[in-house]
Write a structure and sequence with these properties.
Helix content: 40-55%
Number of domains: 3
Largest sheet: 3 strands, mixed
Order of helices and strands: HHHHHHHHHHEEHHEHHHHHHHHHH
CATH superfamily of the largest domain: Potassium Channel Kv1.1, Chain A
CATH class of the largest domain: Alpha Beta
CATH topology of the largest domain: Potassium Channel Kv1.1, Chain A
Distance between the termini: 55 Å
Number of helices: 22
InterPro entries: SKP1/BTB/POZ_sf (IPR011333)
Strand content: under 5%
Strand order of the largest sheet: 2-1-3
Structural class: mainly alpha
Length: 500
């Protein structure tokens, strides 16, 4: 009555021997304390007066969900929700771990009063780090990203917004999945001509290959081949008549990694992995088997992928313990905004990895903005005087020109211009350009903006109508060039020094 799952288990628990005196025995994976508490919820007996702690409820609720027990599920959910005001983050974390959107949403809504949820300061100011690590165990960076987005929007999210992880990401990722790269590699081996050995992966996948080629590529595989071919032949019948009774060498790598690795050993257009987990696993295998050429090409491809998909590369590198690669990926991620930036790799990383990246972006924005604010393009030598006068004579000459000039715009040296740029406020325009760039830096401190040549052309063509620069606008032109050349270099130098 309490569980349809138990009902089915009782039916198949014992063989029908005709003796119904002995009750059926059902083996379960839960410990005795969990089963005792769970079964007490099902029976109409007096319940303990002591309330369960929030830490004791998740194992019970997980078991109740597993065995489809409606009454215990309802009771335990209500017990969790009774703590939502006092411990909203813990309630949110329980909902995320168990995939219960209503519980996670209740905790997320109760946490909306925390102002700095999206920054690392939140952990230090509102919840001690050790408490957060204890209470948020089992949640992912993806879970935390969704909570930050929920908080950033003030809870005003569309109906399809979920705080729990997407169902498509709930699969087990203990092994590298089958990618399009692996599928193409499988097609390659299916049509391989005259193989003389079988390479068998840890998951049982088998790939035909050529001993001579593998021996040249890898001294470690050479030793495995010698050992395999010196043993008596194994009766083996994989698909395809050409591979029947070939010697077999076993590998510890799974099929996706092994297929990709072996394909890279053959000449022709290299088929590199198209996702970061497979790439790193293949590179690790290549280094294990001392495949120097394959390892080098994979490192180059890894550098390219880090540039193209830095956010994915960062989370994969952190999970793999590759600190240098994680730092490089984080540096490249400064070209993008973390706002609304989601990648599936977040679902298998810790929230602390996400927090470190957020803090890194915060420091980078502050450093880049400080450099940009201090960059004064109006410093330098004074604007050359077209009259050739110097000293007090030059001052009087400029005053004279100002008095006789037509009504126009002021330029960097506060003179009126009689040239073809009348009506163009150089300094104010340039300041607007710099402020716009500062605003841009607030979101993407590492993004390269317009080059000096493009800046010069766009400003001169648009504002001067194609007319040449006059003498009093030389500093403006110089400032534009300096902004395009010097400022990105200065900012890049500062960003390179920021530690992750």
């Amino acid at each position: 009555m309490a569980s349809s799952v138990f009902e089915d288990m009782v039916v198949v628990a014992q063989p029908d021997t005709g003796d119904n005196r002995e009750p059926p025995v059902i083996p379960l994976t839960e410990d005795s304390d969990t089963l005792d508490a769970l079964l007490r919820l099902c029976y109409p007996i007096e319940k303990p007066d002591r309330a369960r702690s929030l830490e004791d409820i998740p194992p019970l609720l997980a078991a109740a969900l597993k065995y489809l027990m409606p009454l215990p599920i309802s009771v335990l959910k209500n017990e969790i929700l009774s703590s939502v005001r006092a411990r909203p983050l813990q309630v949110w974390a329980i909902g995320c771990r168990l995939g219960l959107e209503d519980i996670a949403r209740a905790g997320g809504e109760a946490a909306l009063h925390f102002k700095n949820l999206g920054t690392y300061n939140y952990l230090r100011e509102f919840v001690p780090v050790k408490d957060f690590l204890r209470d948020a165990r089992g949640v992912s960076a993806g879970d935390y990203f969704r909570l930050v987005e929920f908080h950033r929007r003030g809870g005003a999210v569309p109906p399809e917004f979920l705080l729990t992880r997407p169902a498509v990401e709930s699969a087990d990722h203990s092994t590298v999945g089958i990618s399009s790269t692996t599928l193409v590699a499988n097609d390659f081996f299916a049509s391989l001509a005259f193989p003389d050995i079988i390479c068998r992966a840890s998951d049982g996948s088998e790939y035909p290959a050529h001993k001579g080629l593998l021996c040249m590529v890898s001294p470690a595989i050479h030793d495995k081949i010698i050992a395999a071919t010196s043993a008596p032949p194994t009766e083996h019948s994989p698909s395809g008549a050409d591979t029947k009774n070939l010697p077999i060498i076993d590998f510890t790598e799974d099929g996706g990694v092994l297929a990709t690795l072996l394909r890279l050993c053959y000449p022709g257009h290299p088929l590199y992995p198209d996702d970061m987990p497979l790439l790193l696993a293949t590179l690790e295998a290549a280094e294990t088997y001392k495949m120097t050429g394959v390892s080098e090409s994979l490192r180059l491809h890894r550098a390219s992928m880090i540039t193209q998909v830095p956010l994915s590369a960062y989370f994969v590198a952190v999970q793999a313990g590759l600190h240098q690669e994680a730092r490089v990926a984080a540096r490249h991620s400064l070209r993008m905004s973390l706002c609304d930036a989601y990648v599936p790799e977040m679902e298998h990383a810790t929230p602390q990895a996400y927090q470190r990246l957020v803090e890194y972006h915060d420091r980078a924005r502050e450093a880049a903005a400080a450099v940009a604010r201090a960059f004064d393009v109006w410093q330098g030598s004074p604007i050359p005087d077209s009259s050739g006068a110097t000293g007090s004579i030059a001052v009087e000459e400029r005053k004279k020109r100002n008095r006789s000039a037509k009504k126009g715009s002021f330029h960097p040296n506060e003179e009126r211009c009689n040239g073809g740029c009348q009506g163009f406020q150089g300094q104010s325009w340039f300041e607007e350009r710099r402020q716009s760039y500062l605003k841009h830096l607030a979101e993407r401190p590492g993004e390269v903006f317009l080059s000096d040549l493009l800046l010069f052309r766009s400003s001169a063509t648009y504002n001067l109508g194609g007319k040449p620069w006059c003498a009093c606008c030389f500093r403006l032109a110089t400032g534009i060039v300096r902004l395009g050349m010097s400022l990105p270099e200065k900012i890049a130098g500062v960003l390179d020094k920021i530690e992750l």
